[in-house]
Amino acid sequence: MEQYFIIDFDSTFTQVEALDELARISLKNHPDREGIYKQIEDLTNASMEGRLSFTQSLEARVKLLCANRDHLKQLISHLKKKVSTSFSRNTIFFKNHQDEVLIVSGGFKEFITPVVTEYHIKKENIYANTFEFDDEGNIIGYDRTNPLSQEGGKVKLLKELQLPGDIYGIGDGYSDFQLKESGMIKKFYAFTENIERKSVTEKADHVTPSFDEFLYLNKLPRAISYPKNRIKCLVVGAIDEEAQAQMKKEGYNIRNRDEIEDKYLEEAGVLFCDEDHQPTPEQVQNSGRLKVIGIFGKCNNKLAETATENGIIIFDDPRHNPHNSDFLPKRVLAFMNEGKTHTSCNFPDLQPPRVNNAHRLIHIHKNVPGILAKINDVFARHNINIVGEFLVTNPQIGYVITDVNTGYDTQVLNELKAIEHTIKFRLLY
Predict the structure, then answer these.
(1) What phi and psi values does residue 329 have, to the nearest 5 degrees?
(2) pLDDT of residue 224
(3) Measured between alpha carbons, how far is 96 from 164 in angstroms, rounded to an integer?
(4) Which helix (H) or strand (E) holds 248?
(5) 45, 51, 207, 344 - which has most CB atoms within 10 Å?
(6) Listed residues 309, 338, 367: the one ending a domain
(7) Which has the closest alpha carbon to 84: 210, 272, 238?
(8) Within 13 Å, how many C-alpha atoms sit on residue 392's CB side?
(9) Contacts for 160-167 with beta carbons within 8 Å, 24 or more apart?
């Protein structure tokens, strides 16, 4: 059975609503621009939440634009920088599924096509409206015969396409939910990375805070092994709001507490704490999911020793740097995203370059002879080619990063985890 993926554009593939952004470009010098911006945004939200028909909303917004071809060129440059983070990092998925991915939008091909074709999406798989222009290049309307310009347009389009297989819809708005309501798609995923509309999420089969989550749920190839929205970041003590915002922007599930409670620490993959709220060695030993600790202050020696024994990296700021709200999150994210340990207070220093089109695996083990040979033996027996490998040690642990350029099955991962003296193992991407 074939599978098809119907993906919305505005506030889904991109972080923004394109017509709203076009208005900000075309009306930049208009004396009443703020009032018109507000009208357009209100019309957008009303249709996306199902309070106003899409036809009425689109017609009213286009009339307010006062835009031309030059404004569209500026918009395209802007939109290319506003592709949703979780979509931009999963280019490999679009490359491998060019025939199954369709962009279906109530927006306009004039600005959608130049953006999404850079992600291997075929022009013939882009379904959207088209503008009408006068001889001077001003937008004077749009093709009203296009079903996507009409209420329920996405449903009408899918009836015309008659795709032979299971169809999955991903979007943020009411028009996306209508596909599910019509019974024409197998599942509807409400995409909330950029905006969450309660009227839509309440009716979705699944709420997906990122495209990584969608790929993970459907066991599809993805840039990162585990969606960040599934990793809890426990925040305890006086932690700067900016530091938390960086983690939230990256997609982590933030949980704030006044004290470190065992049940919350045991669920956390990341811990941010201040100097006065550090976990006890016993708490760290019982935190099997914990990968990294960021301490806004100086780490105590006993905690550092226990964390190292349990394969947990610590970044601290013993000088209470006023800029540590930026420093520590960057270090934590560099470790979580790429395995970098630079400036850690308890791990050996390693800053591996990122290798494109490769899978990165991290192995932390007791510092005893022969572990690297055992790791490489697993890869050799499964005919997996190593494209890069890095090993650093300190008196307690060895830290190995291996980049491989081929797929792997669960058996490979299980064998790596089962090597004697292994402390922690994870697939990074």
Answers:
(1) -60, -40
(2) 81
(3) 19
(4) helix 241-250
(5) 344
(6) 338
(7) 210
(8) 13
(9) 163/2, 163/4, 164/2, 165/1, 165/2, 165/3, 165/4, 166/1, 166/2, 166/3, 166/4, 167/3, 167/4, 167/5, 167/6
The boundaries of the domain holding residue 196 are 2-217
pLDDT, tens digit, 9 for 90 and up, residues 282-332: 999 999 999 999 999 999 999 999 999 999 999 999 876 766 678 999 999
Residue 384 belongs to domain with CATH number: 3.30.70.260
CA 240 to chain centre: 23
DSSP 133-187: E-TTSBEEEE-TTSGGGSTTHHHHHHHHH--SEEEEEEESSHHHHHHHHTT-SSE
76 and 112, same domain (yes or no): yes
Q: Residue 2 and residue 81: Cα distance in Å, rounded?
A: 32
Cross-strand bridge partners of residue 190: 171, 207
Report which of 243, 223, 218 is spatially closest to residue 233, judged by C-alpha positions.
243
CA–CA distance, 88 with 417 (Å, rounded to integer): 31
User: Do 175 and 310 lie in a common domain?
Assistant: no
Q: Are residues 114 and 201 in the same domain?
A: yes
In CATH, what number is assigned to the domain containing residue 317?
3.40.50.720
Q: What span, in angstroms and rounded, lies between the C-alpha atoms of 27 and 37?
A: 8
404 and 293 in a single domain? The answer is no
Distance CA 192, CA 216 (A): 16
Last residue of one domain, picked from the residues 177, 197, 217: 217
- Please check whether residues 208 and 242 belong to one and the same domain: no
CA angle 385–407–400, rounded 5-degree value: 55
pLDDT digits over 39-64, tens only?
999 998 898 888 998 889 899 999 99
